[in-house]
Amino acid sequence: MISPQLHAIVPMLSVTLAALACMTWEAFRDKSEPDQMPVGALGIVGLIGAGISAAFLWNGNAASFGVVSGDNFGLFVTLVLVVVGILTIMFSSQVITRDGIPAGEYYTLILFAIAGMIMMATANDLLVIFIALEVLSLAVYVLTGIRREDPRAIEAAFKYFLLGAFSSAFFLYGIAFTFGLTGSTHLDRVGSYLAAQSLSDNPLILVALGLLLVGFAFKISAVPFHMWTPDAYEGAPAIVTGFMSTGVKAAAFAAFARVFLSSFEPFSADWAPIVWVIAAATMILGTVVGVAQSNLKRMLAYSSIAHGGYLLVGLVAANEVGKAAILFYLAAYAITNLAAFGVIALLGARDRGNDELRDYAGLWQSHPALAGLMTVCLLSLGGIPPTAGFIGKWYIFSAAVSAGYYGLAVIGVLTSVISVFFYLRVVVMMYMQERGTEAPRIHVSAVSMTALSLSIAAIFYLGILPAQVLNLAAQSIATIF
Amino acid sequence: MLPVVGALLLVFVGNGDGRRNALVRWITLIVSVAVFAVTLAMWAAFNPGSPEFQLVERVPWIPAFGIDYYVGVDGISLLLIVLTGFLTPIAVLSSWIGIEKKVKEFCIFLLLLEAAMIGVFISLDLFLFYVFWDAMLVPMYFLIGIWGYDQRIYAAIKFMLYTMAGSVLMLIAILGLAYLHNAATGTYSFDLLKLYTLDIAPRTQFWFFLAFAVAFAIKVPLFPFHTWLPDAHVQAPTAGSVILAGVLLKMGTYGLVRFAFPLFPEAATYFAPWIAVLAVIGIIYGALVAMVQPDMKKLVAYSSVSHLGFVVLGICAMNVNGVQGAVYQMLAHGVSTGGLFLIVGMLSDRRHTRLISEFGGLKAVMPRLTAAFMIITLASIGLPGLNGFIGEFLIMLGAFRWDPRYVVAAGLGVILSAVYMLWMFQRVYYGKVTHGENTTLPDLLPHEWGSVIPLCAIAVVMGVFPTLFLKPMEPAVTRVVERLQNTQTLRVSNDARNAKFKMQTGSEVK
Lengths: 481, 510
Description:
The complex is a heterodimer.
Chain A (H helix, E strand, L loop, with lengths): L9 H19 L8 H21 L4 E3 L3 E3 L1 H28 L3 H20 L3 H19 L6 H32 L4 H9 L8 H16 L8 H8 L2 H26 L4 H24 L4 H22 L2 H28 L15 H4 L1 H15 L5 H15 L3 H27 L13 H19 L2 H12 L3
Chain B lengths: L1 H14 L5 H25 L8 E9 L4 E7 L1 H20 L8 H20 L3 H10 L1 H11 L4 H34 L6 H5 L5 H18 L8 H8 L2 H26 L1 H27 L4 H22 L2 H32 L10 H4 L1 H15 L5 H16 L1 H26 L16 H19 L1 H28 L1 H11 L5
Antiparallel strand pairs in B: 1-2
Helix pairs in contact in B: 1-2, 1-4, 2-3, 2-4, 3-4, 3-11, 3-14, 3-19, 3-20, 4-5, 4-6, 4-11, 5-7, 6-7, 7-9, 7-10, 9-11, 9-12, 10-11, 10-13, 11-12, 11-13, 11-14, 11-20, 12-13, 12-18, 12-20, 13-14, 13-17, 13-18, 14-16, 14-17, 14-19, 14-20, 16-18, 16-19, 17-18, 17-19
């Protein structure tokens, strides 16, 4: 049997092994054979292994080497990431064949990215968080530019890489300051040291705090560190965009919440106002600019910025409800957004993304199933019952209200009304406009359709019978904070 | 009871993939008639003597937050459910021929809409109420947006955004209430009856009442929040207009009676005169604007603004007569305005225009349709012996006891309503046939008989036997009013608190 020391990293290990297997497969496979799904299937096996091991670790509070902790918080996010990974691979199987993306590299990168995300969500040490951040970021930079013949993809990848490297430096600098102040990078020890300090004695704490904040804010694309998001999201293949906007965000948020709500909790009175402003700005900018977009991917990029803002509201509230709300919202948002990008990816063609708003005109006529699924996703993103998005928003705002942040809650609900406007524009296009030209024939493979149906089922499950997952989320935060 | 209805709907949605439109129409009609039968059965099972909620069902939904699937009816909601059940089959009939594309989807949306509307009326849990309230927007949005007239997209989006903008603020107030309950008792609860008993500080009441009242005022729609209504009504297909006018608008006033006023009695007492002023402005403004409309549908839409003003005025009077009249007027308006839209829709299906100037002398061509329209028109004006009269009379009586000045203004509205309705009637039906193509229009078709007869019959029944409807709602209305008046007397006897409330809030409102 494996030593207990290793228990907490089993999920990560499982994904990494799958990634290595994919690489090996790619190296030794018969190049004349076009079949690609087996590579993806390997990945899915690895992810299911991660999911099962995470389920076994539940309530176990395993810890590995003192730096990775398998507490329920991390495991909850791990499960979300596993779902994200499985759905991504299922959507990809059809899309990458169509776009001629090399399967071996693609799946390997996806799996490494997920391994990094899981690590980030479960890491208990600032340096390990940083390593995880780099593991996932490098994989995602490459994925963004994986269509090498497309100049937009190259541009997007390059921008993303430069700004990402820049923010990593900020983050590392913040870690250095924290280490200098507290003599440790371990979150528990940092926390217990800081609890005895006060800002007036030690203003450098604010510097450390600020630098870490910038690093995280970049990864979750909070305003004003969101500049890279629209370009990167638009340039990347649609399915990678879906993966980035859900997986990266979930992992970064998990680490963000862990660092700020445990180690830096004593100074929450100092950082809460800053995050308040960032949250408000993120929600407002994401929705207002989203209204002006005519490209669906770009529009959803801004919408995902806004959703980051809603998650920040939960962070500001920082009470029991807020912490659980972040987890629930992450799950609801991840599934919904990924499914939406899945539909976009399926509608694309090799030479052309078909992701302009007008490309969706009359989709109802040409492909009613996809139009219906897309509608459910958009309504869920807009927060209309009975979908997952509604329960998520309700949970977040109830956290804000119970913490007394009425102003933030009002901004939140008003921006979500504005966001409904642009989600509805897509619905209008799909249902109420006629398509001028002949609609392209879209073939949807059984695997993609299964993935879509699963996501829709999950959206309604979380929207109509959320009690179980809400309880899980509430349990998850009970163990650490 | 409702789960049965809901299940019926879902079964239908599952089966409705056939391409045979006639079959789909028949299934929808049968389902909606069955729902109506269920609502009537509920009425039969209802004990009219009790003010309590009856036929209650309660299943825990999200226990961590004290959210239950908690439904039940009292006299007020019972009648509104029956109205919903009554109007839906009529809406189905009204689209029997008019709707030709995507019949299946149309029927699905219509039935979903019905389920959500019933849900709104029976919810006793604020969270559940909000879910239905918002969920209802989606099918209505599609009904207007896909099957409406030329400007449908604009109208659909406007409808959706207006209503959502109001309701999200209500969501915050609902959350705030649950939080207050948590602060007071240690548990979260969205249970309406428990929240009634909360003692809320005046200042909080002020804001929460505003949030609720704005949401409902948009829905009513109260002047000046009414601008979405003419667009939505005019662009919606006939079935959409019938449901919109007949049921959706009632949700705003229902919300005022059920939630906004009893939950925040002090703020309600404070705001009532202001709301009443808006209501009176709405009555007169709606009537004046209706008078000059060249488009029949728009005319009826503005007449709704005017009639709903009466309802709000009755609620603001906060006495038994006023509130009873308001609820009665909601039912009466549902029947008569639903009927008006229905018949206007029939004309518009025949001629593909709704302009008054395109018609004239129709009495000679279609005498039966004219007769039906006459009955409904008179009902809408408030002729004694028909449904509109009882409600308006009770409202006036209630308002008179409160403050006669409002009644004077509202009375003007009654006269104006006779002016615009009869004037339209005259221009459309009397005189010579001015347009040649009108001479060949067919009179009432079989399916149209099916929708017109029940409407006219119910209009007469409501006018002649008002007790039938007044009796079951009386205990519930009395309870609402008692709750309001208790606070009023409490307020009068407690001058200090009164002054404090004024001081805190008075300066912020003109």
